[in-house]
Amino acid sequence: MSRVEPIKYFESKVHFARKVLNEKLYEISDPTVFKFIVYLLRYKKLTFCLQIVLGLLHLSGLVHSFYGKFKVFYDLNDIDSAIFKFVDSFSNVLLVLSNTFVTFNIFHGTVLCDVAYYLHYNRFSNKQHEPVFVFSKGMVALHLLTLLPLTINCYVIAFQTGWKFYQYILARDIEYWFFNFVSSGTVAFAQKIKNKFSDINQLLSEIESEFIVTDVVDDPNTIDNITTISKCLEKLEFIKEHHNALCDLLDRFNKAFKAGLVMIVLSINGNILWNVTVLIEFTTEKRLINGMDISVFVSVSYILMILVTCFQAALIAVVGEHLAEEGQATSRICYHLLNKFPYFTENKSAAVIRKEICGLLDQAKSRNVTLNAGGFFSMNWGILGSIGSTVATYSIVIMQFVLK
């Protein structure tokens, strides 16, 4: 195996942040949003200007939406429910904050430069990851599904009731569409890190077939066996170094995006609560906008929004869960190798190899291989349960206020 140096460049962030500008650090099979972000990393001034423009658009859209809804939209359509207005405002603010915060955070510092550079140039396997294609297709499906309810909103409100109403809803629809790219872009980097852990575990699994199940340990003095032992030790050292480097990379990623991940999960909660509130408000009694009954369109559109938002949460949970499984798999494979190892063979090579495996096992058990939002929570299937319980609890409260 050709030896690849682990990521020493963490100590020289500026050098590698500049180096990444002239490199193509993505694969054809990567999600489009991942390739777009990596491409923008090359152009610091352009991305800075883009951040400023997007920040101003987010702020102006929020102000215009608030002003129009409270001054025009609510009064003309006899919407006087305080809880409806509160959930609308609160969820809208969460969306804007999430989009603004993560947009500025993505291109701040050199974390993603380091991630992209390491993931591209440290290849442990030539195989193609099937989940990469599934993940990319899932991203495309999510982007297309997001447009469906927004298209219904545009058709019903803009074309049937007029621009004077839709202009105050358009800003939120755009924020929701943009939020889909923000959340999926963040998760795409975590998915790439997960694939590298999978490659590391694959290399570790190959040690059994290459070394332990043979008679190399029993007769370590032949020329062929000496070569095999040397390769095994080199491979174990390689795996240990890169496993530690990947853990460091994941820690930096989690630290850089912990607040962004919290905002994303809160926005998912807030958006589902808002959709449920709209469904209750517009389906429990007849609602007319500019003289048109839109209850059926609202039901279809906002049920679709709930499903799409749940899809967003599920995508985050799947990536986080698979990342945690890869972290646990390293320890499991180490235990498996130690159980298969001939303990009673008395030679120095066996002792050194056992020591390397035990060292990797201790390292794997001490590192936290998860996608987490700081000390708040880990991204796994548990967030779906948390979102479900939150929505169920507050939906009951919202229903009581709206139907009162």
UniProtKB/TrEMBL annotation:
Cellular compartments annotated: Cell membrane
Keywords: Cell membrane, Membrane, Receptor, Transducer, Transmembrane, Transmembrane helix
Principal cellular location given in the protein's record: membrane
Transmembrane annotation, as ranges: 46-67, 93-119, 140-158, 259-282, 294-319, 381-403
Tagged with keyword Disulfide bond: no
Domain of life: Eukaryota
GO annotation (BP), single: chemosensory behavior
Name of the protein in question: Gustatory receptor
